[in-house]
From TrEMBL:
InterPro entries: ATPase_YchF/OLA1 (IPR004396), Beta-grasp_dom_sf (IPR012675), G_OBG (IPR031167), GTP-bd (IPR006073), P-loop_NTPase (IPR027417), TGS (IPR004095), TGS-like (IPR012676), TGS-like_dom_sf (IPR023192). HAMAP family: YchF_OLA1_ATPase (MF_00944). ATP binds at N12, V13, G14, K15, S16, T17. GO terms for cellular component: cytoplasm. Residues 3-258 form the OBG-type G domain. Gene3D superfamilies: 3.10.20.30, P-loop containing nucleotide triphosphate hydrolases, TGS-like domain. ATPase that binds to both the 70S ribosome and the 50S ribosomal subunit in a nucleotide-independent manner. This is Ribosome-binding ATPase YchF. It comes from the Bacteria. The gene is ychF. Residues 280-363 form the TGS domain. Keywords: ATP-binding, Magnesium, Metal-binding, Nucleotide-binding. Pfam families: MMR_HSR1 (PF01926), YchF-GTPase_C (PF06071). GO terms for molecular function: ATP binding; ATP hydrolysis activity; GTP binding; metal ion binding; ribosomal large subunit binding. It comes from Thalassorhabdomicrobium marinisediminis.
Length: 365
C-alpha cells in the first residue's frame, strides 16, 4: 500500500526545499521564482521510530528497516487555479491521488524571496488555497451529479449512495466549508473516500519560518496555530532552509547542529510523525537476528490484513500471529524471555493489531 502526503501551497513558499530535505536529495529544483515546480516530485521517506532501534539492539538484528511514507512535491497553486489560472488545474489531479495534505505556509520574512501576492500573510494564503480546493470540488461534484442522473433513474444503488454523499459535500461547500466537515457513517465511509474530494483530505499546516525562528516560531506561525486550532487541524513549525542544511550532515553533526539551534528533534521528524498521526497510522514490528523491520497499518487493522502488508500470501494463508507487546519485549529483554514469562500471545483472525506489537505470522502456503 504505502501512504502518500502531498506537499501543497502557494508558489515559492518552500515546498521543494522541504521535499529535498525530507528525501535528502536535491531531486526537486528549488529556486527563488514562482512556479519553479511543474511536474510533481515523488520520494519515499523513512519514518523515524526509536522503538525500532531498541528492538534491533535487543535482538541483535543485522539490519534495521524502517517503514516508509511517500511525499509528493506538487506545483504551486494560486487564486483562480480551479479555473485554470497559474499552472491551471492539471495538477489538482496530483493532489487528488494523495491521502493527506501537508500545506506549506510561508511564515518567513525575506525581502529577496518573492511572494506572489507581494506580502507575507500565511492565514490569507491558507484561505486562498482552501478556496481553490473547495471550488475545484464544487465543480467536480456538479459534473458528477449530472453524470449520475441516468443511473439513479435506473435504480442503481451505488449511484443513489454517491448522489446522497455528493449532495452532502455540496451543501457544506456552498456553506463555505471544506467537505471534511461532513460527518460520514461507517457504511458510507468507503464510498465517501472513493469520491476523492480534495477538501476531504486531512490537512496538516507546515509553518515555514526563518532560520532563527525554528525553535519558537514567530508572529506569523502563531496566527497559523490559532487558525489550525479553530479548525481542529494540527500544525508544525519548521524552517525548510535549516532542515535542508541538516539533511546534508551526518547524524552526529546533525545532532550538534540541532542542539546549537535549541531544537530537541529535527523538524522533519516532527513533520513525518504528525503526518503519520494525521492518517491514523500505526506501526508493528517483525524482529529477528536477520532484520528488525517496521510496518505501517491503519489503526484498527486485523492481524490477517496486517500480515497482508508484508505479503498477500501471509494474509490468504493466515493461521495466527504470535504477538508480544513492545513494552513486554523491551522490559523482559527479547522474544525468548517474553515467551517464558507467558507474554507471547497466540492471536487469531479477529485480533486488532496494536501500535508497537512485535509479530510473527504463521500461515499456510
Ligand atoms: N525558511 C526559509 N527561509 C528563507 N528562505 C526560504 C525558506 N524556505 C525556502 N526558502 C527559499 O524560498 C525560495 C523558494 O523555495 P522553493 O523552490 O522550495 O519553493 P516552492 O514552494 O517549491 O516553489 P514553486 O511553487 O515555485 O515550485 C528558494 O529560494 C528557497 O531557498
Ligand atoms: Mg517547487
Amino acid at each position: 500500500m504505502g501512504f502518500k502526503m502531498g506537499i501543497v501551497g502557494m508558489p515559492n513558499v518552500g515546498k521543494s526545499t522541504l521535499f529535498n530535505a525530507l528525501t535528502r536529495t536535491a531531486a526537486a529544483q528549488a529556486a527563488n521564482f514562482p512556479f519553479c515546480t511543474i511536474e510533481p516530485n515523488v520520494g519515499e521517506v523513512a519514518v523515524p521510530d526509536a522503538r525500532l532501534d531498541k528492538l534491533a539492539e535487543i535482538a541483535k538484528s543485522k539490519s534495521i528497516i524502517p517503514t516508509r511514507m511517500t511525499f509528493v512535491d506538487i506545483a504551486g497553486l494560486v487564486k483562480g487555479a480551479s479555473k485554470g489560472e497559474g499552472l491551471g488545474n492539471q495538477f489538482l489531479a496530483n493532489i487528488r491521488e494523495t491521502d493527506a495534505i501537508a500545506h506549506v505556509l510561508r511564515c518567513f520574512e525575506d525581502g529577496d524571496v518573492t511572494h506572489v501576492d507581494g506580502r507575507v500573510d500565511p492565514v490569507a494564503d491558507a484561505e486562498t488555497i482552501e478556496t481553490e480546493l473547495m471550488l475545484a470540488d464544487l465543480e467536480s461534484i456538479e459534473k458528477r451529479l449530472q453524470n449520475l442522473v441516468r443511473k439513479v433513474k435506473g435504480g442503481d444503488k451505488d449511484a443513489v449512495q454517491q448522489v446522497r454523499l455528493l449532495e452532502q459535500a455540496k451543501a457544506a461547500l456552498e456553506d463555505g466549508k471544506p467537505a471534511r466537515v461532513v460527518e460520514v457513517d461507517d457504511e458510507d465511509r468507503k464510498a465517501w473516500k472513493m469520491l476523492q474530494l480534495l477538501t476531504t483530505k486531512p490537512v496538516l499546516y507546515v509553518c515555514n519560518v526563518g532560520e532563527a525562528e525554528a525553535a519558537e516560531g514567530n508572529a506569523h506561525s502563531a496566527k497559523v496555530a490559532e487558525m489550525a486550532a479553530a479548525q481542529g487541524n494540527s500544525h508544525v513549525i519548521i524552517s525548510a532552509q535549516i532542515e535542508e542544511e541538516i539533511s546534508q550532515l551526518d547524524d552526529d553533526e546533525a545532532q550538534m547542529f540541532l542542539e546549537e539551534m535549541g531544537l530537541d528533534e529535527a523538524g522533519l521528524d516532527r513533520l513525518i510523525k504528525a503526518g503519520y498521526e494525521l492518517l491514523n497510522l500505526e506501526t508493528y514490528f517483525t524482529v529477528g537476528p536477520k532484520e528488525a523491520r517496521a510496518w505501517t497499518i491503519r489503526q484498527g487493522t486485523t492481524a490477517p490484513k496486517a500480515a497482508g502488508v508484508i505479503h498477500g500470501d501471509f494474509e490468504k494463508g493466515f493461521i495466527r500471529a504470535e504477538t508480544i507487546a513492545y513494552d513486554d519485549f523491551v522490559t523482559l529483554g527479547g522474544e525468548q524471555a517474553a515467551k517464558e514469562a507467558g507474554k507471547m500471545r497466540a492471536e487469531g483472525k479477529g485480533y486488532i493489531v496494536k501500535d508497537g506489537d512485535v509479530l510473527h505470522f504463521l500461515f499456510n502456503t
